[in-house]
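// run 5 | inverse folding | seed 20
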């Protein structure tokens, strides 16, 4: 028995509209569910990016099929990395420039993989990383 992957990553922010508009511009990210003032659910490949407003999810109980979902929420910026095909970093940099998204840093790792870092409207640190980064 072993963990075989991560199926969801969560961000928390009160800026749901700004985040919806931001993430919808990223190729391969598609909105599949939204509850205004509570959450946004995006599909990213085989994983999910869930964005919750902690003012709701940390204080208002939710149930699914009669079972409680534990209260949860966080404050402050976090980091997530998106995996992209190798040799597409220049295309991603062009997309960022077209969408006026500043790139904070570009790193070539010891194994030759490249990452670029930028921020979403809530201040979260986002990374676009080539698939070989952790191989």
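// decoded
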């Amino acid at each position: 028995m072993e963990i075989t992957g991560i199926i969801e990553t969560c961000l928390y922010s009160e800026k749901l509209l700004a985040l919806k508009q931001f993430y919808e511009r990223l190729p391969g990210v598609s909105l599949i569910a939204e509850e205004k003032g509570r959450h946004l659910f995006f599909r990213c490949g085989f994983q999910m990016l869930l964005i919750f407003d902690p003012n709701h999810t940390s204080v208002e109980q939710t149930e699914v099929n009669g079972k409680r979902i534990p209260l949860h929420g966080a404050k402050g910026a976090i980091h997530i990395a998106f995996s992209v095909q190798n040799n597409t970093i220049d295309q991603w940099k062009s997309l960022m420039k077209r969408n006026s998204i500043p790139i904070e840093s570009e790193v070539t790792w010891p194994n030759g993989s490249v990452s670029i870092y930028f921020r979403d409207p809530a201040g979260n640190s986002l990374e676009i990383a080539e698939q070989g980064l952790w191989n």
